[in-house]
Amino acid sequence: MTPFLRKFRILFSTQFALMTEYRAEIVIWMLSGTLSLIMMLVWMGQAAAAPGGQIRGFSASDFASYFLATWFVGQLLVVWVAWELDFEVRQGTLSPKLLRPLDPMWGHYSGHVAEKIVRFPIMLVLVSLFAWLAGARFSLDWRVYAAVLGLVVLGFTVRFLWEYSLGLLAFWTESSTSFQEVVWLVYAALGGLFAPLAFYPQWVQNIAVWTPFPYMLGLPANLIAGKATLEQAGQGALVLVGWLAVFILVRLMVWRVGLKKYGAVGA
Amino acid sequence: MISPPPDVAVQVRDLRKSYTVHEKDPGLMGSVRSFFNRRSHEVEAVKGVSFDLAPGEVVGFLGPNGAGKTTTLKMLSGLLHPTGGTARVAGFEPRKRETPFLKQITLVMGQKQQLIWDLPALDSFLVNQAIYEIPEAQYQATMREFTEVLGLEGILKKQVRKLSLGERMKCELAAALLHRPRVLFLDEPTIGLDVNMQESVRAFVRDYNQRFEATVILTSHYMADVTALARRILVIDAGQLVFDGDLASLAEQSSGGKRVRLQLRQPISLADLSRYGNDARIDGLSAELSVPRSEVSARAARLLADLDVADLTVEDPPIEAVMAELFGAGREKAAESVTGSVAASVA
To answer: Is the interface score ipTM higher than 0.90?
Structure first.
């Protein structure tokens, strides 16, 4: 095992231990992220009332499948690192991390991954329950779930890096989290959290395909709901790899420039 | 891998740091004005500080609050980028934060730093072992030593948030020194601790310095920390180095002379005692007074000849009094601190 992997393994196991301490909070946090489920109910109601019981080819059951899948994928894409960095930079608690010969990013990243693993079994139980209640149907092809896993890992890492970069703006601003909230709105809209991307005006769709958002949230959800192909998954993964490269560079640049501005107040 | 110690452990030349500080008047109107016209000004926290430290040297870094001590330590540990001047620590430029540099230094500030709050301290130690790439045998040996010297037995598996302040500080110190750094920056390491705990932290730092020949820069408001550990003192005031020398020389900065303490066999009146010096005090058969530094021998001889003296000692003024004098009575909090004086018995 390389020294880096050894470090990451220890960081991960420590963060996993920490997240199991917070398991009750994680469940409450999951339940608070119910926007997809609310949108599911709204669209199911609209489809039931529509002529033929469908809107643009989506029945109530299709909407249930799509929005439950977005909820599931969205849970795996949850990132809170901007809040942590904002606090650490402004309160000076970043200082002890800077004294160690390892980029503090890895501690945050391992913490997020560990939290996903603690979250996963609870998600499975909840999504099964909601699927049964709402009459959702999911793909049974294992290759679909392998593709979803790949897109989620890429999408999560891309989101983690852009949120990390936003959090680092705390080196310059009083509060970087306001930027994060604006970006979340774009992510939610173009990712398909409010409605499938196909429901948006064409010009919005034309813009969205150049962003990472549809490929990290809407595409995996459509795959699970049986509304996207493995070929589309491959194309989406390529786009995400491109964005990954972009955000690796952006994060590194903001980090290096921002450190010169660090005031190390308090601690 | 640890590189061999350089001839100079810490070299600081004309080190400077300025901050931009924003200002806002209180209240709603102040907020409105600040929204449209944000005022700011430049604060020079460190104004051209220079000094060298030899490997293994322990130095007390003193100064009133806001003098620039912590800012200097943060620049030397690579947390802050200097505005001007240069610093080299263990042969490295701190601001570059290179891995070999970070493996040779540590900075301890307060009691809530490295440890993961909701997990036992042992988990934090394992993280540090991995991050600093400490070989298992060295980790085990260091843990055994630290457990014995700091008395960590029984607290390593408790959640950090359930530890007392003193227990937490001991764990913080252990975490900070687990990788056996060669340069230690200790910023108020005993703050908030009771007297026994302060003593055990001092003993640990002293032991570590002797065993590993580590260079130590220590700031503390407890003069006992400084007098127990440091031979050399750097005093910084308003961002400038105003004193660099040993403790005795620092005491000589005082214009108040030396303090003579007497144990008498016969009582004496305050008026009679006051003929031998200033600021005389009597408590039963114990008495004390201040005498000019240049006349200590003559005054002591007179006291021994004129009075029935069982014991006489001459002491430098307490360091905190010297500091108070150096920084001005209104600015110095050193007088609040407790023990510590350099005593020289002549009896």
So the answer is: no
